[in-house]
């Protein structure tokens, strides 16, 4: 994480997924990098987390987060 700037390197971004045991194909990872890249070396992880929150809120609002019920 770079000096509280809201960014991580692309390599670190990949390691986070590995640590969380989230398996992404090269194409999937490349799409995420393309969408959230701040520059050629860093990812805007604040924007990435915001997108996850927005998606989760949408799914929750439409009753799609608890499909087992």
- Could you tell me the strand content as a percent range? 5-15%
Biggest sheet descriptor: 2 strands, antiparallel
Average of per-residue pLDDT values? 91
| Tally of DSSP helical segments | 3
Q: How are strands sequenced across the largest beta sheet? A: 1-2
* Helicity level: 55-70%
Which sequence of SSEs, written as H and E, runs from N to C?
EHHEH
Structural class: mainly alpha
Describe this structure in words.
The structure is a single chain. This protein has one domain. It is built from three helices and two strands; from the N terminus they run βααβα. 55% of the residues lie in helices and 9% in strands. The chain has a two-stranded antiparallel sheet with strand order 1-2. The protein is globular and about 40 Å long.
């Amino acid at each position: 994480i770079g000096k509280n700037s809201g960014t991580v390197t692309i390599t670190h971004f990949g390691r986070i997924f590995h640590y969380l045991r989230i398996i992404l194909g090269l194409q999937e990872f490349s799409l995420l990098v393309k969408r959230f890249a701040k520059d050629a070396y860093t990812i805007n992880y604040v924007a990435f987390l915001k997108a996850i929150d927005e998606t989760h809120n949408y799914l929750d609002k439409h009753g799609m987060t608890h499909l087992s019920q």
